[in-house]
Automatic annotation (TrEMBL):
GO terms for molecular function: cytochrome-c oxidase activity. One of its GO terms (biological process) is aerobic electron transport chain. CDD domains: Cyt_c_Oxidase_III. This is cytochrome-c oxidase. It is found in: Cell membrane; Membrane. Residues 2-286 form the Heme-copper oxidase subunit III family profile domain. The chain crosses the membrane at residues 12-34, 40-61, 82-102, 150-170, 182-202, 222-247, 267-285. Its EC number is 7.1.1.9. It holds the Pfam family COX3. GO terms for cellular component: plasma membrane.
Length: 286
């Protein structure tokens, strides 16, 4: 706003409602894990979270369209998005850290190497290899095979890299006020995102039915699905965000110099792409 004023949003009910919905969802998740009967409660909580998010973002869009935000608010949004992506980096760093810990430390210890090689006394016949096809505990069955990284995983890698390129072109088109180019390249990005999700589903089907890779297939199966599954969820979220951006573009929102909502979605999508490259290298290839 003019005059160096700072916009203070009106009192909002969404933080409280969002917290309540999230609490219901987590209670339902706990009930489902412990008692096996919390699916309905968890689903209601999830619907509540999604509803609050949609209505809250709607209010933010309306405030932006009314010209209520100034340069200070823009900086606040950028800092908030930056911290959000940082939290996502730490989220995936935890899972990558677990993968590296297992491969670099835990497995060699069980094989008698390193400072804690005494752990080899637990399973004296165990031989450390990765991917771990034969877990040390005979009650746990490992996968029958591992996936070939140069087939579907490579295709998905090329798709995500291409989607980052198309999204960058769309962003450049918006900065030049070329809304047609922005729209078309954004549609291409969405199409690539949908194809990625479909191929990921096919890959999961093959992993379970042909390769015996499941969450119960030892530490390899657990790390495989935790890393690729959470990444797939982030891709779905990213596709949803970009779909909302497309609707806003079609409605005439954003300008050449006033489009942080679009820019933030680009930040998120590029982050998802970088994470996948790490997954491709350390989950599939090495």
């Amino acid at each position: 706003m003019s005059g160096g004023s700072y916009y203070v949003p009106a009192t909002s009910k969404w933080p409280v409602l969002g917290s309540l919905a999230l609490g219901v969802m987590m209670i339902g998740a706990g009930m489902a894990l412990v008692h096996g009967n919390g699916t309905i409660v968890m689903s209601l909580g999830l619907i509540g979270v999604l509803t609050v998010m949609a209505l809250w973002f709607r209010d933010v869009v309306m405030e932006s369209r009314q010209g209520l935000y100034d340069a200070q608010m823009d900086r606040s949004f950028r800092q908030g998005m930056g911290w959000f992506i940082f939290s996502e980096v730490m989220f995936f760093a935890a899972f990558f850290g677990a993968l590296f810990y297992i491969r670099v430390f835990a497995l060699p210890w069980l094989d008698g190497e390193g400072a804690k090689g005494v752990a080899a006394l637990l399973w004296p016949d165990f031989s450390a290899t990765w991917p771990l096809m034969s877990p040390p505990d005979p009650s746990v069955s490992g996968p029958r095979e591992v996936m070939n990284p140069w087939q579907l995983p490579l295709v998905n890698t090329l798709i995500l890299v291409a989607s980052s390129i198309t999204l960058t072109i769309a962003h450049e088109g918006l900065k030049e006020s070329n809304r047609t180019a922005c729209r078309n390249w954004l549609i291409a990005t969405l199409a690539l995102g949908f194809v990625f999700v479909i191929i990921q589903g096919v890959e999961y089907y093959q992993a379970v039915t042909h390769y015996g890779i499941t969450l119960q297939a030892g530490i390899y199966g657990a790390t495989f699905f935790m890393l690729t599954g959470f990444h797939g969820l982030h891709v779905i979220i990213g596709v949803t965000i970009l779909a909302v951006m497309l609707v806003r573009i079609l409605r005439g929102h954003f300008g050449g110099h006033d489009h942080f909502g679009f820019e933030a979605s680009c930040w998120y999508w590029h982050f998802v792409d970088v994470v996948w490259i790490g997954l491709f290298l350390f989950v599939y290839v090495f």
